[in-house]
Amino acid sequence: MSAPKRPSSAAKYANLVIGLVLAAMLIIIGSQSFTQGLSGILLGVASYLAAGALIYLSVMNYYRISYYSSHIPEKTFTVLRCPTCGYQVTREFAVGDYVGKQAEACPKDGTPMLIVRIYVLPAQTQ
């Protein structure tokens, strides 16, 4: 299992700038439409609401990308134990592992081992 690719800081700023520019355009369109009667007022209000939502989503996406850019990757491990002899081994997590699942055979007596624990450790930073 490979670690997911981290987004670049350029993507973080590009997303924010594009969102703010589009929101500014919506605000300009909305402010110009107020002179066109009732339909213009509705268009202006809708433009302001859309601009507000776009600003909110752009800022939240900026913080989401910042979090994932700085997030330390993790390693997940699975602990297997033989129910008869008590032999225990730890290995990397495999997709489909769950606590209580029967896994490979015990190397000592051949009994199917059970998954007794799954845990996560932060990966070593270099």
Give a quick rundown of the structure:
The chain contains 2 helices and 4 strands, in the order H-H-E-E-E-E.
Low-confidence stretches: none
**Contiguous helical run count:** 2
| Classification by helices and strands | alpha+beta
Shape: rod-shaped
* Strands, count: 4
The main pleated sheet reads as: 4 strands, antiparallel
Q: What's the end-to-end separation, in Å?
A: 19 Å
3D architecture notes:
By secondary structure, this protein is an alpha+beta fold. The protein has two domains: 9-70; 74-122, 2-Layer Sandwich (60s Ribosomal Protein L30, Chain: A). The longest helix has 34 residues, at 37-70. The protein is 46% helix and 22% strand. The two termini are 19 Å apart. The relative contact order is 0.15. Strand 3 and strand 4 (112-122) form a beta hairpin.
Note the main attributes of this structure.
60s Ribosomal Protein L30, Chain: A, 2 helices, 2 domains, 126 residues
SSE map:
Elements (H helix, E strand, L loop, with lengths): L8 H24 L4 H34 L3 E8 L6 E5 L9 E4 L6 E11 L4
Antiparallel strand pairs: 1-2, 1-4, 3-4
